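Weekly sync, protein design subgroup
Attendees: M.S., D.O., the rotation student, P.L. (late)

Item 1: inverse folding check
M.S. brought a backbone from last month's batch and wanted to see whether the design step gives back something sensible before we order anything. D.O. pointed out we never logged the input encoding, so this time it goes straight into the notes. C-alpha cells as presented (113 positions):
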C-alpha cells in the first residue's frame, strides 16, 4: 500500500504561484505504475477533481485550472507535483493527492484578493 503526504501549501496573493508536492512511501513500485490525482475541497463545498497524471505522463485538467496548473511526476523522487500559477481566490481550499483508494491528509492553500 502507498502512503501519500502533501506539502507546499500556504498563503499567497492573487496572481501568485505555489508548487504542491505529493510524496509517496510504502509500495513505491506500484506508485510509479498508476495514475495520481489532485483534488481540492473549497470551504463549505465538496471535494473536486482538478488534475491527473498517468503512468506514461499523460495529463488532464479540470477546466477551471487548465492553462494555469501543471501536474508532473518525478518517479526517482517518488513525488508528484502540482505547479499552480495565476492563483485566484476561488482556488482556496485543502488540496489532496490520491492514488487508487489512498489519499493524503491534504495541504491548505489560501489565496487572498
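Designed sequence read out in the meeting:
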Amino acid at each position: 500500500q502507498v502512503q501519500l503526504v502533501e506539502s507546499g501549501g500556504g498563503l499567497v496573493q492573487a496572481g501568485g504561484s505555489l508548487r504542491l508536492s505529493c510524496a509517496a512511501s510504502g509500495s513505491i513500485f506500484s506508485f510509479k505504475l498508476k495514475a495520481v490525482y489532485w483534488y481540492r475541497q473549497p470551504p463549505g463545498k465538496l471535494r473536486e477533481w482538478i488534475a491527473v497524471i498517468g503512468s506514461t505522463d499523460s495529463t488532464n485538467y479540470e477546466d477551471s485550472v487548465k492553462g494555469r496548473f501543471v501536474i508532473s511526476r518525478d518517479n526517482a523522487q517518488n513525488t508528484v507535483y502540482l505547479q499552480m500559477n495565476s492563483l485566484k481566490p476561488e482556488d482556496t481550499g485543502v488540496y489532496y493527492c490520491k492514488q487508487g483508494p489512498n489519499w493524503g491528509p491534504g495541504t491548505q492553500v489560501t489565496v487572498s484578493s
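Discussion: DSSP finds one helix and eleven strands in the chain. Helices lie at 28-33.
Action: P.L. to compare against the previous round before Friday.
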